[in-house]
Amino acid sequence: MSLLTEPAAPIEPQPSKPDDTKGLSQGKLISRRFVSNRLAVVSIVIFVLVAVLSISAIGLGPIPGWWKHNFTSLNAQLNGGAPTLSLVPKWLGGEGISLGEHPFGQSRIGVDYFAMTMRGIQNSIIVMFVIGGIGTVLGTVVGAVAGYYRGWVDSVLMRVTDVFIVIPALVIGAIVGRATGGLGVWLLAFFLALVSWMTIARLVRAEFLSLREREFVEAARVAGASDFRIIFKHILPNAIGVVIVSATLLAAAAILLETALSFLGYGIRQPDVSLGLLISENQSAFQTRPWLYWWPAVFIVLLALLVNFVGDGLRDAFDPRQKRVSLRRMKETP
């Protein structure tokens, strides 16, 4: 019996998959990663649809609305103020798909609740963008200056940041809301933004402390670039991922902060409307008229979740190393 065995066939190298990311700019790579995140894309689409619905329904400023009621006019109570929205087709035994006279019902004094909810969504979105925008700009400037110059400049700016950051945001917001809540949503959001920049400042500072030691910064100094140009033309574009992701998280927190302040009576006040104010005014009617509580609560949770999902997508797009790894996909890979 022969102990010789046939030689094993040589293992042919597997053809490598073509890399379709070669030659793409950083912006296109980020866009491609973000679009590949289905949850983030769906979230941003739903958020835009909700925003368009709230603005087009009752109007905003010079933009007219298509809904026949507004958020202040009184109407006769119909069917005890119950919602008239119907989503069950007639062929399934329902009343057909229709909005009715008051799709979200009516408040206890007869105001159309759909119009009030749409106005509350508008104010939440205004607060989100104002606080997110102004807070991001302030935090970025403070963090960039502190991280670039270091020394006594860093010490002074960070000690000021520490003073604000140790005070609970709700306490600062209550003081600001008490003074500006009755002056309108724009002023309330502006002053809240002035005390909402601290977290972004610390994140940007940490990023600048790392980036300022890179070779391209030293090359810019040798070339005679000014500090302003180095900070905003060379270092900041490399830290923009941290800034954008932090801005989305701040925007989501802004929605919840405004809601909490209005619920406690320190935010937006009558005759204007806020989602938190609607919950506060109707919490005693939870058992008898639950729609007065659930409609604003659903949209508060929905807006906050949508913005957080978009923030997660942006984080994964700017830093793919943080992207979650699918265990099932790892097991299926030979």
TrEMBL record:
Signal peptide span: none
Record-linked Pfam families: BPD_transp_1 (PF00528), OppC_N (PF12911)
Stretches that traverse the bilayer: 39-63, 125-149, 156-177, 183-204, 235-257, 292-314
Domain ABC transmembrane type-1: 121-311
Gene Ontology cellular component annotations, sorted alphabetically: plasma membrane
Membrane topology category: Multi-pass membrane protein
Major localisation: membrane
Subcellular localization: Cell membrane
Keywords of this entry: Cell membrane, Membrane, Transmembrane, Transmembrane helix, Transport
UniProt region (Disordered), positions on chain: 1-24
Any one of the GO BP annotations: transmembrane transport
Family: Belongs to the binding-protein-dependent transport system permease family.
Protein name: ABC transporter permease
The organism of origin for this protein: Homoserinimonas hongtaonis
